[in-house]
Every structure is written in C-alpha cells, then in structure tokens.
Amino acid sequence: LDHRPEQYRLPGLRHSIRLVSTPACRAVRAANEAPYDQVDHVMNYMFTNDGEIPGFNALGLALHEGGRMPLRLPSIGFVTGTVAAKVAAPSAVAGAEVMPWRPSIGVYLIIEEGQADASNLIDVPGVAGVWSIDGQPAPEPYAGDFTGSRITYCFLDKDPVETAKALAEHVRKRWESGAVRGLLAAPFFVVVPFDWDRYLP
Q1: Going along 89-180, which residue ranges are E strands?
Q2: Distance (Å, whole) CA 70 – CA 61
Q3: Using CA atoms, how far apart are residues 17 and 199, in angstroms rounded to an integer?
Q4: Residue 85, exposed/middle/buried by CB under 10 A (0-12, 13-18, 19+)?
C-alpha cells in the first residue's frame, strides 16, 4: 500500500504482481537450483517497453529516499524478458491477453535454461492461463543476461500447493530430453491486501 501505488504514476507501467512462498510451497518445488533456491518472494513489473525502466529506477530511488520503502528484502537477482506466448484455459472465461489482471490465488513460476512450449500446462486443473517470457540482457543498472532462457507464469485459480503437485509431473517431462533444464519450478501465493500475515513463511 506504500510505494507500489506510487509507481503507477509511470505511464509505461502496466501491472505489478507480488508473490510469496510458504514452507508448504517450498516442499513441492519441482526444481530448486541455486541461486533460485533462496527465493521466497517475487516482485514482477510489466512495462510497455524497456525505455520506461530509467524513469522507474529514478522514481524508486526517490521513494526509497522519502522513506516509502520501510521494508526491503535482499535481492537474489533480476530476470528480464519479453512476453513470447500467452494462452488461457477455456475454464478461465477470460482471454489470454488479460491473464495477469484476472484475479488469481497464486502463480506457478518456472525458470528454465532453454525454451519450450508451455501451452499444454493449461490442461492441468487449477491453471487458468500461461504466459511465457523469453529472457534478454538486463538493462542498466541491473546485471545478467537471460538470453536463451524462458520464464513461465502459470496463473492459478485453485490452491497453489495442490496444483503444484499436479504440475510437477508435467514440468519434469519437459526436462527429460535435456534440451531444457529446470532452474526453478515453484508455487507462490499472491499477497492479500490487508491480510498481511496470510501465507507469509
């Protein structure tokens, strides 16, 4: 309720999603490679284009200096990319284009070396839609080049822990050939406003 609403002053910021992992979420991760094994929170920002990032950084610095970020966890790293594919399950009764804005209980997040189609994951009950994001070099001042990697968001409308158990078999099959390597495959809950203790580890 503090700095995140202020960030919507930026015309190029379309959306933001805050996710949290619980001990139960951690227990059903299908992939958990370093350094992603340290991830308990994920903050996702969606921009119209990467030219918006300098303004985002400047505003973030001003908010920090103004005391608008009283709690900040140490960062494991940054992953940047461009949306490559979107698909919605028929049961979602919403288009693939709007999946991040459709209310969800959580997200099953997959980070992989290599790129493979993830559209069949909508066949798993509880998955309302899937967005795949192709990695790219991170803009300044962030570090990392994720070219050749893929980040997949499965937007969930059923319990993330139970859905993760069903998804685990599907994602492991993706990696059997060795063409794609799973670095993180994990369920997360969305943070519930005004219910701040809910789902926190």
Answers
A1: 106-113, 127-135, 149-156
A2: 13
A3: 15
A4: middle
Q: Report the candidate in 181, 118, 119, 120 with the shortest Cα–Cα distance to residue 148.
A: 181
**Domain membership flag for residue 65:** no
> Tell me: the pLDDT tens digits for 5-60?
899 999 999 999 999 999 999 999 999 999 999 999 999 999 998 888 899 999 98
Q: How far apart are CA 53 and CA 80, in angstroms?
A: 11
Question: Residue 66 class from Cβ within 10 Å (0-12 exposed, 13-18 middle, 19+ buried)?
Answer: exposed
In Å, how far are 31, 37, 39, 97 from 25, measured between CA atoms? 12, 12, 11, 27
Between the CA of residue 109 and those of 7, 8, 102, 141, what are the distances in Å?
24, 24, 17, 24
Q: Which pTM does this prediction carry?
A: 0.94
Helix (H) or strand (E) holding 41: strand 41-47
**Domain ranges, residue 35:** 18-46+74-190
Tally of structural domains, the chain: 1
